[in-house]
Design brief:
Helix content is 32%, strand content 18%. By secondary structure, it is of the alpha+beta class. It has two domains: 193 residues, Aminohydrolase, N-terminal nucleophile (Ntn) domain (Glutamine Phosphoribosylpyrophosphate, subunit 1, domain 1, 4-Layer Sandwich), CATH 3.60.20.10; 71 residues, no CATH class.
Length: 298
Protein backbone atom coordinates (compact mmCIF):
# COMPACT_ATOMS: atom_id res chain seq x y z
CA UNK A 1 0.00 0.00 0.00
CA UNK A 2 2.66 2.48 -1.13
CA UNK A 3 5.67 3.81 0.73
CA UNK A 4 6.98 7.32 1.27
CA UNK A 5 10.58 7.91 2.29
CA UNK A 6 11.51 11.40 3.46
CA UNK A 7 15.25 11.10 2.98
CA UNK A 8 17.39 13.53 4.96
CA UNK A 9 20.44 11.36 4.30
CA UNK A 10 20.77 10.58 0.60
CA UNK A 11 24.24 9.05 0.82
CA UNK A 12 23.57 6.02 3.01
CA UNK A 13 23.87 2.64 1.31
CA UNK A 14 20.90 1.45 3.35
CA UNK A 15 18.64 3.84 1.48
CA UNK A 16 19.41 2.20 -1.87
CA UNK A 17 18.82 -1.27 -0.40
CA UNK A 18 15.51 -0.15 1.06
CA UNK A 19 14.48 1.45 -2.22
CA UNK A 20 15.04 -1.83 -4.06
CA UNK A 21 12.95 -3.76 -1.56
CA UNK A 22 10.25 -1.09 -1.70
CA UNK A 23 10.11 -1.30 -5.49
CA UNK A 24 9.49 -5.07 -5.37
CA UNK A 25 6.41 -4.47 -3.19
CA UNK A 26 5.28 -1.18 -4.78
CA UNK A 27 6.13 -1.10 -8.47
CA UNK A 28 3.14 0.78 -9.96
CA UNK A 29 4.84 4.17 -9.93
CA UNK A 30 7.87 6.01 -8.58
CA UNK A 31 8.20 9.72 -7.93
CA UNK A 32 10.36 12.22 -6.07
CA UNK A 33 10.19 15.84 -4.97
CA UNK A 34 12.53 18.44 -3.49
CA UNK A 35 13.12 22.18 -3.51
CA UNK A 36 15.98 23.94 -5.26
CA UNK A 37 16.38 27.72 -5.05
CA UNK A 38 12.77 27.91 -3.78
CA UNK A 39 11.59 26.11 -6.92
CA UNK A 40 9.70 22.84 -6.94
CA UNK A 41 11.47 19.92 -8.59
CA UNK A 42 9.40 16.81 -9.19
CA UNK A 43 10.00 13.80 -11.41
CA UNK A 44 8.16 10.52 -11.77
CA UNK A 45 8.06 7.37 -13.85
CA UNK A 46 6.11 4.17 -14.33
CA UNK A 47 9.12 1.86 -13.87
CA UNK A 48 9.74 -1.29 -15.86
CA UNK A 49 12.37 -2.38 -13.33
CA UNK A 50 14.22 -1.04 -10.29
CA UNK A 51 16.94 0.53 -12.46
CA UNK A 52 14.34 3.00 -13.74
CA UNK A 53 13.79 4.15 -10.15
CA UNK A 54 17.49 4.19 -9.32
CA UNK A 55 18.43 6.13 -12.44
CA UNK A 56 15.81 8.77 -11.68
CA UNK A 57 17.03 9.04 -8.09
CA UNK A 58 20.68 9.30 -9.16
CA UNK A 59 19.77 12.00 -11.68
CA UNK A 60 18.57 14.27 -8.86
CA UNK A 61 20.40 13.31 -5.68
CA UNK A 62 23.35 15.64 -6.31
CA UNK A 63 20.96 18.62 -6.60
CA UNK A 64 19.75 18.55 -2.99
CA UNK A 65 20.50 17.20 0.47
CA UNK A 66 16.92 16.11 1.23
CA UNK A 67 14.27 14.52 -0.92
CA UNK A 68 10.95 12.72 -0.59
CA UNK A 69 10.42 9.48 -2.52
CA UNK A 70 7.18 7.64 -3.28
CA UNK A 71 6.68 4.01 -4.37
CA UNK A 72 3.10 3.40 -5.50
CA UNK A 73 0.92 0.33 -5.02
CA UNK A 74 -2.29 0.90 -6.97
CA UNK A 75 -5.49 0.55 -4.94
CA UNK A 76 -7.69 3.15 -6.67
CA UNK A 77 -7.54 4.40 -10.24
CA UNK A 78 -5.20 3.12 -12.91
CA UNK A 79 -1.41 2.91 -12.96
CA UNK A 80 -0.54 6.01 -14.96
CA UNK A 81 1.75 9.02 -14.53
CA UNK A 82 -1.34 11.13 -13.84
CA UNK A 83 -1.98 9.05 -10.69
CA UNK A 84 1.70 8.81 -9.79
CA UNK A 85 2.89 10.87 -6.80
CA UNK A 86 3.79 13.66 -6.12
CA UNK A 87 0.87 15.95 -6.90
CA UNK A 88 1.10 19.74 -7.12
CA UNK A 89 -1.35 21.32 -4.68
CA UNK A 90 -0.41 24.99 -5.08
CA UNK A 91 1.83 26.99 -7.37
CA UNK A 92 2.54 30.65 -8.03
CA UNK A 93 5.62 32.73 -8.84
CA UNK A 94 6.91 32.70 -5.25
CA UNK A 95 5.85 29.38 -3.80
CA UNK A 96 4.82 25.82 -4.60
CA UNK A 97 3.32 23.05 -2.50
CA UNK A 98 3.48 19.40 -3.54
CA UNK A 99 2.07 16.34 -1.83
CA UNK A 100 2.49 12.56 -1.48
CA UNK A 101 0.08 10.11 0.16
CA UNK A 102 0.38 6.69 1.77
CA UNK A 103 -2.66 4.87 3.06
CA UNK A 104 -5.66 2.74 2.24
CA UNK A 105 -8.17 5.38 1.18
CA UNK A 106 -8.51 9.14 1.62
CA UNK A 107 -11.97 10.45 2.58
CA UNK A 108 -13.05 11.94 -0.75
CA UNK A 109 -15.61 11.03 -3.45
CA UNK A 110 -14.24 9.13 -6.44
CA UNK A 111 -15.76 10.65 -9.56
CA UNK A 112 -14.53 8.03 -12.00
CA UNK A 113 -12.63 4.77 -12.13
CA UNK A 114 -9.65 6.30 -13.91
CA UNK A 115 -8.23 8.51 -11.17
CA UNK A 116 -7.15 7.72 -7.63
CA UNK A 117 -8.45 8.92 -4.28
CA UNK A 118 -5.24 10.94 -3.88
CA UNK A 119 -5.85 12.66 -7.20
CA UNK A 120 -9.37 13.69 -6.19
CA UNK A 121 -8.28 14.66 -2.65
CA UNK A 122 -5.72 16.99 -4.16
CA UNK A 123 -8.06 18.46 -6.80
CA UNK A 124 -11.20 18.90 -4.72
CA UNK A 125 -9.88 19.50 -1.21
CA UNK A 126 -6.25 20.60 -1.14
CA UNK A 127 -6.15 22.93 -4.14
CA UNK A 128 -9.14 25.04 -2.99
CA UNK A 129 -7.73 25.00 0.54
CA UNK A 130 -4.28 26.31 -0.41
CA UNK A 131 -5.80 28.78 -2.83
CA UNK A 132 -7.59 30.38 0.13
CA UNK A 133 -4.64 30.10 2.52
CA UNK A 134 -1.24 29.19 1.10
CA UNK A 135 0.36 29.26 4.58
CA UNK A 136 -2.10 26.97 6.35
CA UNK A 137 0.51 24.20 6.70
CA UNK A 138 2.17 26.37 9.33
CA UNK A 139 -0.94 26.19 11.52
CA UNK A 140 -0.63 23.60 14.30
CA UNK A 141 -4.41 23.51 14.61
CA UNK A 142 -4.83 22.69 10.91
CA UNK A 143 -2.24 19.90 11.09
CA UNK A 144 -4.06 18.35 14.05
CA UNK A 145 -7.41 18.56 12.29
CA UNK A 146 -6.01 17.08 9.08
CA UNK A 147 -4.40 14.21 10.99
CA UNK A 148 -7.71 13.39 12.64
CA UNK A 149 -9.54 13.67 9.34
CA UNK A 150 -7.38 11.20 7.39
CA UNK A 151 -7.01 8.88 10.43
CA UNK A 152 -4.02 6.53 9.99
CA UNK A 153 -3.16 7.62 6.45
CA UNK A 154 -0.03 9.71 5.93
CA UNK A 155 0.59 12.81 3.83
CA UNK A 156 3.90 14.51 3.10
CA UNK A 157 3.86 18.12 1.87
CA UNK A 158 6.77 20.10 0.50
CA UNK A 159 6.65 23.88 0.89
CA UNK A 160 9.30 25.22 -1.47
CA UNK A 161 9.45 28.72 0.01
CA UNK A 162 10.17 27.31 3.48
CA UNK A 163 12.19 24.44 1.95
CA UNK A 164 10.42 22.23 4.47
CA UNK A 165 8.65 18.87 4.50
CA UNK A 166 5.46 18.67 6.56
CA UNK A 167 4.62 15.10 7.58
CA UNK A 168 0.99 14.49 8.51
CA UNK A 169 0.66 11.63 11.02
CA UNK A 170 4.42 11.38 11.41
CA UNK A 171 4.02 9.06 14.41
CA UNK A 172 2.29 6.50 12.20
CA UNK A 173 5.63 6.02 10.42
CA UNK A 174 9.12 5.41 11.73
CA UNK A 175 12.70 6.63 11.38
CA UNK A 176 15.64 4.59 10.15
CA UNK A 177 18.56 6.82 11.01
CA UNK A 178 17.71 10.27 9.67
CA UNK A 179 15.25 8.97 7.09
CA UNK A 180 11.49 8.68 7.75
CA UNK A 181 9.44 5.78 6.38
CA UNK A 182 5.66 6.04 6.15
CA UNK A 183 5.10 2.45 7.25
CA UNK A 184 6.96 -0.65 8.40
CA UNK A 185 5.09 -3.28 6.36
CA UNK A 186 6.76 -2.30 3.09
CA UNK A 187 9.27 -5.11 3.71
CA UNK A 188 6.54 -7.72 4.14
CA UNK A 189 5.08 -10.06 1.53
CA UNK A 190 2.52 -8.17 -0.56
CA UNK A 191 -1.16 -8.84 0.13
CA UNK A 192 -4.17 -8.30 -2.09
CA UNK A 193 -5.90 -4.95 -1.91
CA UNK A 194 -8.71 -5.84 -4.31
CA UNK A 195 -11.28 -4.98 -1.64
CA UNK A 196 -10.41 -1.30 -2.08
CA UNK A 197 -12.11 -1.34 -5.45
CA UNK A 198 -15.47 -2.00 -3.81
CA UNK A 199 -16.09 1.63 -2.82
CA UNK A 200 -19.06 3.46 -4.28
CA UNK A 201 -17.74 6.06 -6.66
CA UNK A 202 -19.91 8.79 -5.19
CA UNK A 203 -19.66 8.94 -1.42
CA UNK A 204 -21.97 11.60 -0.04
CA UNK A 205 -20.41 11.71 3.43
CA UNK A 206 -17.86 14.29 2.28
CA UNK A 207 -18.79 17.86 1.39
CA UNK A 208 -15.90 19.02 -0.78
CA UNK A 209 -15.76 21.60 -3.53
CA UNK A 210 -16.44 19.95 -6.88
CA UNK A 211 -16.74 23.12 -8.93
CA UNK A 212 -13.37 22.57 -10.57
CA UNK A 213 -15.02 19.64 -12.36
CA UNK A 214 -17.96 21.79 -13.58
CA UNK A 215 -20.45 19.56 -11.81
CA UNK A 216 -23.43 21.58 -10.58
CA UNK A 217 -24.60 20.37 -7.17
CA UNK A 218 -28.20 21.25 -7.89
CA UNK A 219 -28.76 19.26 -11.05
CA UNK A 220 -25.83 17.04 -11.97
CA UNK A 221 -25.18 13.42 -11.20
CA UNK A 222 -23.11 14.50 -8.17
CA UNK A 223 -25.41 15.52 -5.35
CA UNK A 224 -23.12 15.93 -2.37
CA UNK A 225 -25.79 16.96 0.12
CA UNK A 226 -28.06 14.01 -0.58
CA UNK A 227 -28.17 11.06 1.81
CA UNK A 228 -28.37 8.61 -1.09
CA UNK A 229 -25.46 6.72 -2.59
CA UNK A 230 -25.17 7.40 -6.32
CA UNK A 231 -23.52 5.30 -8.99
CA UNK A 232 -21.56 7.62 -11.28
CA UNK A 233 -22.35 5.40 -14.23
CA UNK A 234 -26.11 5.26 -13.72
CA UNK A 235 -27.43 7.20 -16.73
CA UNK A 236 -29.04 10.57 -16.18
CA UNK A 237 -32.59 11.11 -17.33
CA UNK A 238 -33.24 13.27 -20.36
CA UNK A 239 -34.74 15.96 -18.12
CA UNK A 240 -31.57 16.05 -15.99
CA UNK A 241 -29.39 16.37 -19.08
CA UNK A 242 -31.39 19.39 -20.23
CA UNK A 243 -30.20 21.16 -17.07
CA UNK A 244 -26.50 20.59 -17.84
CA UNK A 245 -24.32 23.00 -19.74
CA UNK A 246 -21.73 22.01 -22.35
CA UNK A 247 -18.79 21.44 -19.93
CA UNK A 248 -21.03 19.19 -17.79
CA UNK A 249 -22.04 17.17 -20.84
CA UNK A 250 -18.40 16.91 -21.99
CA UNK A 251 -17.42 15.63 -18.56
CA UNK A 252 -20.29 13.16 -18.44
CA UNK A 253 -19.51 11.69 -21.86
CA UNK A 254 -15.78 11.52 -21.06
CA UNK A 255 -16.57 9.59 -17.86
CA UNK A 256 -18.86 7.18 -19.71
CA UNK A 257 -16.29 6.51 -22.43
CA UNK A 258 -13.31 6.20 -20.05
CA UNK A 259 -15.30 3.64 -18.03
CA UNK A 260 -16.24 1.72 -21.19
CA UNK A 261 -19.93 2.63 -20.78
CA UNK A 262 -20.59 4.05 -24.25
CA UNK A 263 -23.97 2.34 -24.42
CA UNK A 264 -25.27 4.78 -21.80
CA UNK A 265 -24.60 7.66 -24.19
CA UNK A 266 -26.58 5.86 -26.91
CA UNK A 267 -29.47 5.21 -24.54
CA UNK A 268 -29.52 8.84 -23.46
CA UNK A 269 -29.52 10.15 -27.05
CA UNK A 270 -32.32 7.72 -27.90
CA UNK A 271 -34.39 8.90 -24.93
CA UNK A 272 -33.86 12.55 -25.88
CA UNK A 273 -34.95 11.86 -29.47
CA UNK A 274 -38.06 10.00 -28.33
CA UNK A 275 -39.07 12.87 -26.06
CA UNK A 276 -38.43 15.38 -28.82
CA UNK A 277 -40.59 13.40 -31.27
CA UNK A 278 -43.39 13.02 -28.72
CA UNK A 279 -43.33 16.73 -27.82
CA UNK A 280 -43.55 17.83 -31.44
CA UNK A 281 -45.73 14.94 -32.63
CA UNK A 282 -43.05 13.99 -35.10
CA UNK A 283 -42.56 10.81 -37.02
CA UNK A 284 -38.94 10.92 -38.10
CA UNK A 285 -37.91 8.65 -40.94
CA UNK A 286 -34.42 7.99 -42.27
CA UNK A 287 -33.18 10.59 -44.75
CA UNK A 288 -32.10 8.85 -47.92
CA UNK A 289 -29.84 10.20 -50.62
CA UNK A 290 -30.82 9.77 -54.26
CA UNK A 291 -28.09 7.14 -54.57
CA UNK A 292 -29.45 5.11 -51.66
CA UNK A 293 -33.02 5.48 -52.92
CA UNK A 294 -31.97 3.73 -56.11
CA UNK A 295 -30.70 0.79 -54.09
CA UNK A 296 -34.08 0.28 -52.38
CA UNK A 297 -36.11 -2.69 -53.51
CA UNK A 298 -39.85 -2.00 -53.86
Amino acid sequence: MCLIIVANDLKTDQLIKDMEIAYKRNSDGFGLMYAKNNKLIIDKVIPKNFNDCLNLFNLHKSETNKMSLHFRFTTEGVSTLENCHPFISFENDNKSIAMMHNGARLPIPLLNKKNSDTYFFNENYLKPLFKNNKNILHSKYFIEQLEAHIESDKLVFLDTKANQFFIINKNEGNFVGKNWYSNSYWKDTPISYSNFNNYNYINDDYDYDLESYNYKKSNSMVSINSQKQYDLYEPLSAIEVLNLDLPDIDMMIDDYISSDQQELVSELIFELCEKLKAKNNLSIKPVLTEEKKGDLKI
